[in-house]
Amino acid sequence: MDVQLLLVMTGALFIAAFAHRRGVQAGIITVTLAAALSFLPGLPRLQLDPHLILGVVVPPLLYSATLNFSLFAFLKNLRSILGLGVGLVDAGAPPRDATAPIEEYAGATFDRQRNALTRAVREREIDPASATDIIREIDARQEAATPALD
Fold this sequence. Notes:
By secondary structure, the protein is mainly alpha-helical. The chain folds into two domains: 2-69; 96-145, no CATH class. It has eight helices and no strands. Mean pLDDT is 75; it is low at 103-107.
């Protein structure tokens, strides 16, 4: 894994230097090169911890991008930035009805809570382990809420 990290770091430095010489953003070259390399057969799968990428590889790329930052260019492209950064994220979000099982769980009776959790697990909105823990809590509250018959 250390060799893979060294290869990625070296590649990032070469990409940043190449991008600086060509006057192109390093991120564009990185994405294009990574996409092209992913289609080559026989290359070993490169697996790195995401925290290493975010902590070690991304900061030099961001630094090199901010060296040539222009407020005028940013304001000129603000509409596109907001459209892609906010508009696409909002468009890709699930519809409001997809969260209905979770909202239904919030104010429902014990049986309806169980049914809502089951539906949420089926639709992969919540993982089964968490749902099991919640159902155990529901059962415990239900036992505490029902009066004991003597």
